[in-house]
## 1
Amino acid sequence: MMDAVDPSPLRHFVVAKRSITSIFDQLLDFVKDGSAFVDEAWRGEELGQVAVEEQSLEMQSCETKLWTIRDVLLRRHMKVAFFGRTSNGKSTVINAMLRDRVLPSGIGHTTNCFLRVEGTDGDEAYLTTEASNERKSVKTVNQLAHALHMVPTLDSGSLVKVFWPKTRCALLRDDLVLMDSPGTDVTLELDSWIDKFCLDADVFVLVGNSESTLMNTEKLFFHKVSERISKPNIFILHNRWDASVSEPEYVDEVRKQHLDRCVSFLAEELKVVSLDEAPGRIFFISAKEVLSSRMQRAQGMPETGEPGGALAEGFHERLREFQMFERTFEEFISQSAVKTKFEQHTVRAWQITEAIKAVMDAINIASADRKIFCLEEREDQRDRLEFVRGQINRLTDSVRERIKTLTEDVAAKVATALLDQIRSLPVLVEEFRADFNPTQETLELYKTKLMQHMEERMVGGLSHRCSVSIHRDIRAAQAHMIDSVRPLLSTSLQEQVSPPSTSFELTYDLGLTALCADFHENIEFQFSLGWTSLVTRFIGAANAKRALSGPERRLQDSSFKDEMVVSIATGLVSVTSRASMSVLVIGGVVWRSVGWRVIALSLSLYGLLYLYEKLTWTNASRERALKKQFVEHAAQRLRAIIPVSSSACSQQVYNWRPRLAV
C-alpha cells in the first residue's frame, strides 16, 4: 500500500520560519540604514543638531538585538520527544517515521541515553556527545550501536546527537528533530529530564505496549511535564497492535479498553485536550510492520509487513493508522512550533521597533524645527535670486538661438560636402583596386571591400571638409557662453569658470553597406546592337527592364510619361514576336531591291562586330561595368539620405552641450 503523497504540513513551519526570517532581514536592513543615518546626522554639520549621540547608540543597540534574534531564529526547529517504558518500541517508531533503520532497535538494543536525531546537509552520518564535539562517523545502525557502547560516560541523563543525511530521509529536511529517550522506568530523575530535554519540545509521543496498560511511571512523567508546560501536545501510540491478530474475538474489546483509559488520562487527568479531541490523539500501530514495509518498498520488494513472511492479517489497517498518526502529528507540531518558537521573538521585535520609532520621532521633530529655520533663510535668499534668474532667462534664450544657428550651419555644411562627395564617386571608385573574378564568392568579397573603401574615403572627405570648421564654430559658441555667464557669478567664481574638458568628435555614419545591400550587378555580356541594348538606349535602363520583364512587372505604380515610353517599347516587342511572317515578306522585298551581296556584307559586318565585342568582354570589362553600375546605384541611394545625414550631424552638435567647468 502506498503512503500519502500530499505535501507535508511540516512545510508550514519551514515557510513560516523563512517568512519571519525574511521579515527580520528587512527589519535589519532598515535598522542598519537608520543607524547609519542617525550616526551621520549627529556627527555631520550640514544638517545641524537634529540628532544626539545617545540616539545613535540606541540604534546600534537595536541592531545588535535584531542580529541576536535572527541568529536564534536560524537555529530554531520543530522538536518531538518520544517517551515510554523500556522496550516499548520507541526507537522502532522513530525508524518507521524516518523510513530507515537509523537508531538501534529490536532484540539486544536498548536505548540507554537520550538520542537526538536531526538532518545534516552532508552525505555522511555522524554523532557527537555532550563531552566532545568530535564527529564520529556512523554509516550503519550497527556502527551507531557500537559507537554508543564505546562511550563509557553515557548514562540515562546524557545526550547524543545523531546527524543523518537529509538526502536519505525526507522527514529531516523540514527542520524536524526527533528525541529518543531511555525508558521512564529506569530512573527517578524525571524532573532533571524535563528541565534538560523537554521544555523546548513541541510534541510528546508516549509509546505504549498494546499487551499492557499505561503504568504509573508513564503517567507520573507526563503529570510532571504538564506542570512545567501549559497544555503540552501529547500523542499516545499503542505499539505492537499486530499481536491482537492472534485473538481476533477480543480485538474490539481490548481496543476500547485502551482507548477509554487513554482518553481519561489525557482529558480528565492531564486536562490537555477535551473528551471529543482525545480520541484523535490515540493510535494503534505496529511500528515494526511499518518499518519493514517501507524498507521493502524502497528496495522494490512486495510490502508484507514482515521481513520474509506473508502479508499479515490487518496489516493495511495498521499501516493506515500509522499514516494517520503521522499526518496528525505533523499538523500539530507545525502549528505548535510556529506559535512557541516565533511568538516571543515577534513581541521582542515589536518592542525594538517601538524604540526605533521613538528615536526617529525625536529626529523628525528636530528636523521640522530645522526646516522652519531654513525656510526663513530661504526667503531672504529668494529676493536676491530674482535678478539673477531674469538674467539667466535672457542668456538662455540667446544661447538657444546661438545653438539653433550653429546646428543649421552644420546641416548645411554636411549636406554640401556630401553632395560634392557624391559627384566624386566615379573617381573614388576608380581608385579602388582588388582582385576581380566573376565567381559568386569572389564578387561578394569584391563588393564588400569596394563598399568599405568607399565608406572610408567618403567619411574621410567629410571629416576633412567639415570637422575643422565645425569645431571652430563650437569653440566660438563656448567662449560666447562663458563670457555671458561670468558677470552673473561672484568675483571668487568668475576666474574659475573654464570650457569643458571633454572634446567633441563629430561622427559621419553613412551606412553605405546597408544602403547598397540591394545592389545586384549585371556583368553578363550584352551586344551593343542587340535588342535589349537598343531598347535600353531608347527608353532607359529602368524602363527597359520593366518593358522586357513581362506584364506582371508593368502593373506596378509609375508615372504617366514612363508608362507611355514603356508601352511603345512593349508594342515594338510584341509586334516583332507576332509578325515574323511579315518580316520574311519584307526581307524578300529588300533582297530583290539591294541584292544579296549588300545583305551578306551587312550581316558579315554585324557578326564581326558581335565577335569583336564578345572577345573583348574580359574580366577588366566586367569590373568596369560593375563599378559603373555601383556608382549609379550608390549615387542614387546617397542622394536620398543627404537630409538624414546632415540632420544627424546637426543633432550631434545639439546633443553635445556639456556643462561649464567651475
## 2
Amino acid sequence: MALYLSICAVRDNENEMAELSKEDKLLVKKLVTKFNKLGAVLDSEKHARLVSIGAQINSRVEKFCHNNRTDIVQMLFHRSELNGLPHTFFKDRRTRRVGRRGTLKYIVTTSILDFIPVVKLATSEETRKQMYTAYIGRSPENMQLLQETVLLRLKAARILGYENYSEWVLQDTMAKSPDAVIAFLADLEQHVGGLTQIDSDGLIALKMQEMDVNSKPYQGFYDWDKAYYTNKMTRIKYGVDSEVVRTYLPLRHVLERVLAIYETMLGLRLVYNKGKTGDVWHPDVDMYEVWEAHDMDIFVGYVYLDLYFRNGKPTGSGSTFHIRQGFEATKPGELHNYPAAAVLVDLPNPANDPAALLSVGQVKTLVHELGHAFHIMCSKTKWSMLQGTSGVEQDFVEVPALIMERLFTQPSVFRQLTFNYKTGALMPDDLVQKLCDYEQQDGMSYKELLLMARYDLAIHSTRDGKVNCSRLYQQMSNCPAGLCDAAVVDHLMDSYSSMYYSYLWSSAYATRMLGTRFLAEEECTGSRVGAEYRREILQPGGTCEAQESLNRFLKISN
C-alpha cells in the first residue's frame, strides 16, 4: 500500500509529473492502473476475499492447462481405417495385435502430431470422428473448471467494482470496453461474412457430392469434417496438394531461411550458441545469441528455440514468453539487462525423421512465434515493465506476429523457404502462387476465430453468473451434444481470457500495414521497410500508446 500511495502522490503532483519523461509518465499511469486492478484501494476484508478468489482461479487455470498438455489418449486403428494417410505416417509407428486372430492395429494418439494428419487426411469419416471426439474429450473435467473459473472471475470483478470480468480486463487495452469489441466483431462479420459463408457452403456441397458418389446418405457437416474437406477443397479449387507441399518444406531448411529473412529485415545477426547444455532446460532446445548486424560489438539478447514435440511440453499450438525482460542503461555505468525469449512449438524432430517435413500451418506457427520473440529482442525501454510484448496493450501483442505471417505467405517470400527434400528444387512458381492465394482467402479461419471471440466475450461478460459454458458453446457452434472445443482452448483460461478477439483486432491492423507499407516496397521484407518497422512498431514497447506507434508507421497524422 505504501508503494501504491507513493506512486499516486507522484501522479497527483503536477510539478513532479512535469519533470518526468514521457516513458516515466506512462510507467506511472500503468502502475496505478495495475495496482487498482489488483485491488490496492480495497479494505482488508475485501482484499482478503479477492486474494482467496485469485488463488482459486489460479489453481483451476493451472489444472485446465496441465490437462491439455498431459492428457494423451491412445487409440487403435486398422490400416484400412487410416486410408488417406501418407506412408510416412506409418514409418516406425508402434503397433499392437488384438483379438483372437491377433489383428494388427496401429497406435495413434491425440498428440497434435497425430491428430492433425488424421482429421485432415483420413478418408473414413468414422475414423475422423473417433479421433476428433477423443481429442476434444481427452480432459473431461475441463468444462467444469472453465465454468467455475468464469463465476469466480465475476465475483472478483464485482469486489473490484466492475459489472463483469470483461470490463475489468479491457479497461487498459486498445478497445477499452466490451461494447467496443462487440461493435468491432459485428463490423468484421459484415465484411468477411460472405467469404466465410461461401467457404462453408462449398465444403458442405463437397461432402454431399462425396456421399452421393459413394451411395451414402448425407447426415450433416461436423467439426471432424472441416479439416478434411478444407484440404480437399484446396486440391480442387486451388490445385494444391498439402502432401506435395510438405515435400518442399523440410524443417532444417525452413528454419534457416526464416531466421535469415528476420536477420535481413531487422538488421540483426543470430549466432548459434553451441555446447551450452547447462543453459537450456532440455537437450532439444537451441540457444541463439542476437547481435546488431551493423556492429557485432552490440549485443541484443538471447532467443531459445524449443521446437520439437514431446509429451507434457507446455505449448498449446505454440507460445513465446519472456525468460528475462530487458531494460536499457540510461547512463554510463548503469545496469543493462538483456532480454531473453523462448519459442515453444510442436514440430517433428529431425532426430526421429531426418526430413521432418512441415505443413504450411506449421511454418506459419513458427514464423508467428518468432514474430513475438523478435518483438521482445528489438524493444528498447528504460523500464522492464514496458519492454516488448509485456509492455504493449494486450490487443496489440499479436500485431508483430500476424504481420510476419502475412509477409511470409507472399509468393516472393514463401518461395525462399522451399527446398524439395529429395531433389533440392524450389517449389514451382505456379504452386507457390496458388498456395499463397489460398492462404489469403481462408474464410473458415475467420469463422472459427469469430466464434471463439464471441464465446469468450459472452461467458466473461455475464453480470448475473447465469451462464452455462457448455450449453452456450453448443448453441453458438451447433456442435454435437457432449463435444465442446472450448475444453481444449487454453486462451479461455489464461491471460487471453476476454481477449480472444485480439487475434482478429491485431489481424485488421496487420492487413492494413501489409497493404499500406510492406507491399508498397520493392522488397517487402527488405531492410529499408524493416528498419522502420523495427523502429516504430517493435522498439517502443509500452513507451507510447500502440495507436501512436501504428500511426507513425502507417504515416497517419494525429
## 3
Amino acid sequence: MRNPESDSHSNLSSSYDFVPEAGPSCVTLDKAGHSNGINKENGYCTPASNGTISNGSLTMGNGLAKHSSSITRVSLPGTTLYDDPYLDREEFVRLVIQSLRDVGYIESAATLEAESGYSLEAPEVSEFRQHILRGAWADAEPLLIELGVTDADALLDARFLIGKQKYLELLEARKTTAALQVLRNDLAPYSTALEQDELHALSSLMMCSDPQDLRRRASWDGASGNSRRQLLDDLQHYIPSSTMIPQRRFSTLLTQSREYQRQLCLYHNSPVNPSSSSLFSDHTCDKESFPRITTTILEVHSDEVWNVAWSHDGTHLASASKDKTAIIWRIGLEAEPSSRDCIAEFILRDHPYPLGCLAWSLDDSILSTSADHLILLWNTKTGALMKTLENHAETVSALVWLPDGSGFMSGSLDRKIILWDMEGEPRESWNDIAIRVTDAAVTPDMRRLVAVGMGYNPPPTLGTLARANVRDASPPIVSNGNGNAVGPGPRPQENRMIIYDLKTGQVELSVHMEGELTSVKISEDSRYALINHAPDEIHLWDLEEFRLTRKFTGQRQGHHVIRSCFGGIDGNFVISGSEDRNVYVWHRDTGTLLEVLEGHGLGSVNSVAWNHRNKRMFASCSDDNTIRVWEAPVYAGELLRGFSISASEPEMIGKGKGKVKQPWAYNYGGL
C-alpha cells in the first residue's frame, strides 16, 4: 500500500518516534521512517536501553534519541518490475521492506518505505499483530473483519482459533472457571460440525493435573513459548495476504525456488548446506557424482541371487539366494573403494528351501529370512539361528519390520498377514484376506500397510478387513468366444493393490490392476508407493490422494520377480532390475530415464537396494550368482574389486528362474 503524499510532493519528513524490533516482522512500519533503536554520538553507536519484549509484546523505554531526515520520494513509471508483467513493483518493494526488517536493517527499511512511498502494512495490521502477541484477545477479534475476513465460515474458524488459545492459556494459569466460560461462550458457539471432536478433546483438558500435563496432552508449548506466533501463522490463512503479508515471505519464496531447482536437477544427490548453496547461481549436480560404476563384485553364492537388503546403519548387506543360503556381508565405510573391506561375515545355511525374502530389524540385531512357508530369525552379531516360524501354509512372499522396531509383519500366498513381536511370537493374524500376497510394505509413519497380490476374492461380508473403498479400472468382462464382450463376469486371476489402515486393519483402498504385481516399496516421507507391474512397467502411487502418479517404462519384466526401490538423498530416484540383465534408473518426479547400467551377466537383475547411510551407493543382485555394489566414479586409477571364497563353499544346485509357470512357484530343480 502507498503512503499518503506529503505536502511538498517531493520530500518526506520522517520522525522516528518509536523503535520497531528487528526480527520476524512482528512490528510494522506504518510511519514514513523509524529509528533502528540506537543512539548516535560522535559517530559511535550505543544500544538503546529499557526496551524489552515478552512473547511478542514490545515495551519501549527512554534514552532514545529522536532523529529526523528528509528523503526524496522516487516516482517511477508503470507498476511492474523489470518490464515483467507478472511482477508487481509494490508487492516486491513491500517484501524487501519486510526482509530488511527481518534481518535487522530497520533504518534501511524505513528509508525504502519513505523513498518508494509504499508502506509495509496498514496500522490496523500492526495493531492486530500486537494484540495477538500480547494476548489482548478482546481487542484482536473485532479487527478480523477490518482485515478482510468477511466469509462467515472463515470468521467462525478464526474466532475459534483465538478462543482456543485463550482457553489454553487460562487453563495453564490454573484459572479453571474463566476457562470454562471461554469454552461455553467463545468456543462452543463458533465451532463447526467438523470441530466438534476437537471441542470434546479441549473440554477433556480440564482434567489435566498441572500445566505440564496440559502442554503435553494438547501438544502446545504454552503462553511463554511460540504458541502466539503459531496462532498468527494459523490466522494468516484467513486474512488476505495483500493485507497481512505472511511472515518471512521472501525467505519462503527463496526456499520454494531452491526446491524447484532441486526438482529440475535430474541428478540431484548431494546434501544441501551453506557452502554448496548460493543465490548467485542455480543449483545443479554433476552427473559424475551419480553411482553408476561397479566398484565391488561379491561372488560367493553358487546360484541365482534373488534379493538384497542393506542394514539401517549401512555397514552390512544381506543377500538371499536360490542356493538355500543367505549371506551377511560386512561392507567397509572407507570412502576409497580400493581400500574397503568387503567380507562375507556369516553364511546362513540352515534353510531347507531357496530364499525369497529378507529384512533387517530396526536396530539391525535380527535378520529375518523366508524359505518357502518358513520364516527364520537370525542373530546378526553371531550368525546363529534364533527361531524358525511355521505359521504360514504357503510361500512367504513379504517380510517387513515395523518402523518403531516393535516387531515385523509377514505376508503369504496363503492369504494371511501376521504381525509378530521381536521374539517371533504372533501378536495378530489377518486371515482370509482378499489376495494371495506377493509383497507388502509399511509406511514409515506407521499409518498404512500396502499389499499387492493376485487371486482376488471379494470379501463376502463387511468385516473389519472388508470395509473397502474398492475401485476397478473397468468392470470385469466376459467374452462370448467371438471377441465380443457380453457383460461383467469374474476375473479368475485378478491382481490387486490393497491399502490398509495399519491400526484398525480397515481397507482404505482396493484397486484392480492388469498384470502381475511383484514388489512394493514406500518412500521415506510415506507419500508414495512404488509397485513393480508386469509387463514392463513400474507404477508410482500417491498414498494421500489415492491416485496413480506416474509410470516408469524401459525395463523388461514379464516372467520373473523383479524388485525396485527408491534411491538418492531425497528419494528422488527410482531404480530397478530388469530381465535384460541391466539396471535402470529414472528421475522420480519427471519419469526421465537417466541411466541404463550394464555389467551383470546373463539372466535377470532381480533386486536392487539403496544404502541407507551412504546415499551414493546401491547394490544389485542377479541370476549370474553375483552382487554388484555401485558407486560414483572416483579417480581413473581405481580397480574393479572382486570377492570370492574357496570351492568348499555351497555347490551349484542347478539353473533356472525364480518363477516358472506362475509367480512365486519356484522351480527348485531347475528348468
## 4
Amino acid sequence: LVFAYAVAQCIVWILFRTLVLGVLLRKQSTSQLITRWYIKHGGDGEEAFSSWRAVYNTATIMTYGSFGLVALVAYHWGNADIGNLVLFHTLGLLLIAFHVWSSRSVYETLGDFGWFYGDFFARDSSMLSLAPPDIKLYYTGIYRYLNNPDKVIGQAAFYGLALISRSWAVFALALFLQACNFLFSSYVETPHMEKIYGTQIHRDSGIVRTVKKAVNKGVGQAVFVDEDCSNDTDTRDPADKLSESSGVAGLLASTAKPVKDMLLETKDLLSTTTARLAEKTLPAELTNLDHMGAYSLKLMPGAAWRASGRGAANKGAKTVYYLGESIRVAWQAPASHSRRDWIGMYPVTANFSDQITTSGSKGCYVYTHPDDNLLAEMVVGDSVFASSVTGVTRARVGKNSSGMIEILRGEALFSSSALPFKVGTYELRLHHGGTHAVLVQSKPFEITTCNLESIVQLLRDDNAPAAESVPEPVAAPPTDAEANALEQLAQALLTIANKAFAVTDSHTVASSDGLDTDGQIPGLRGDVVVQTDVVEPLESVQDPFSVGEVLEEKQARRIGYAIKEYFGVEFASDVLVHAAKHGATVQDVAKRILEAKQALSAYSSTSIKP
C-alpha cells in the first residue's frame, strides 16, 4: 500500500511538471498567457517570471523527491549475491553522478534565466534583471557536444536509482518520466526555440557531426549530409508532409466532430423549440394591430461613416460603430401606437425568432415615446433612456388601405449603460406595448474598434450636434518618443473612459403645444417632451479615474474590456477598482497600460507609435 501511494504521488508530480506546466509554458510562448494574467491582476513581467520560477522549481524538487521515495520503498536485495550488489550499486551511483555533472554543466551554461525558461517570458533585459545583456544562442559548455542534454542524458539518475533498488517498477517509472520529458521538449521547448532563434539552431549536435565526418572520411564519399550547411530543399508533395505531421490531430478531430455536431444540433433544437413555444404566446392585440407597415427602424450614421467622407451610405454596406460610441436610431410608428413601445439591442444570434424576443436586453433598451404614467413608474435601476417625437407626417400605409394616417417620427439614443460595450454584430428590435412581441427589426450592424491614432478624433464628443465645431485637443510639446506615446495613449484613454463613465438621463423638459408650426396636428397637443442628456464627467488626463471618486464594478468591467480591445492589454476589474480607490488619474492608468504593452512587445507585432 505504501509503495502504491508513493508511485501514484510520483506519477502525479511527473504529469504536473511536464503536462500541466508544459501546457502553460506553450501558451506563454504563443500568447504570453502567464505574463498577461499577472499584468491583468496588477503585476508585471518580472513578477510573472519569478512566480513561474518558484512553481517550476517546486515541481522539479517534488518530482525528484517522490521518485527517490519510490526507489527507497522498493529497495530490497534480500540474499542477493554480493558481486551483483556491488556492481549494481556502483553503476547506479555512476549514473547519478553523471546526472549531477550534466545538470550542473547545463546550469553553468544557461544560468538562472535559461534554466527556468526565461526566454519564454521576455527578451528585454530592462524588464528582467536575470536576463543576460545579449540573448543569443551560444553552443558552449556541454552544448558543444549535445544540443539538448536534458533530453538525452538528463534522466540518468532515475535509471541509477532503478539499478540500485533492483526494481522493474522503478525502471518503468524512469521510462515514463523520460517519455514525458521527451514530449515536453518536442512540443514545448523545441518549437519555441525555433521561433525565437530560427537559423541559429544546430540540427546536429557536436558528437553527431564528428561521427558523420568520420564516416564520410572513411568511406570516401558524402554518406551523410550536414543539414545545417545544406541548401537542398524537401521536394516532397506538401500534401504528403502535411498528412505526416497532422495524422494524429486529424484522427482526433474526425473523432470529436460527430460529438460536437450532436451537441450543436441539440442546442439548436432546444432554442428553436423555445422560440416556437414563445410565438404561440404572442399577445392577442398584436395579431389585430393595424398599420403594421407604418413601423420602421433606421440606423443613423456614426463616426465610421463620417470618417469615410461618404455623402450617402452605400447600398448593402454594413453599418459600423466604434466601441463606446453612441448609437442613434430613427424610428417611425403610427400615432395610435402603444406608449410603452420600446427598442432593445441584441446580438444577432441571441434570438431565433423574428416575431418574439426570447433573450434579455441586459439594460440595453430605450422607450420610444413614453407618456407621463410610464415615466412616473421609472425607479432606480430601471431604464432612464427614452426618446420623443421629432415630427409627424400623413401617409397611406399599404396598397389596399383607405385614407391617410398620422405617422410619428422620432429619434432614440443608445449611450453609456444602454450600450452592450462588447465587440460583435447586433440588431435593434422594436417591441409592442411593454411585451417582447417584435414589430420590426433593424438591419444588422457591427460594433468594432479603431486604431489608437483615430480614437480621439472619431469618438470625442460624438454626442455633439454635427453643426458644432469640436476643438482639437492641445498636444503636449514634443519631447521624446515615449513621452509622446504616453500623451497619445492618455488622450485616447480619456476619450474611452468618458464613454464608459458617461451619465445619461432622459427627463421631461416641457409640455408641447404641438409639433407643427401652426399647432394644427391633432392628438399631440399637450404631449410630453423628453430630452436625453449625455454628460461625460472627465475633462483632462489629470482627473481621477472614476466618477465621484467611486468606480463601480460594472464600470470597471466595461472600461477593462475597452482597454483590452483598443490597447491589447487586459486588466481585471478589481485592479481598476483598486487603482481608482487609491486616487489614480487617467494619466496614471495610461502609464500602466504603456508599461504593460512594452512588457508584452517582445512577442507582439503591434506597438504604440507616437
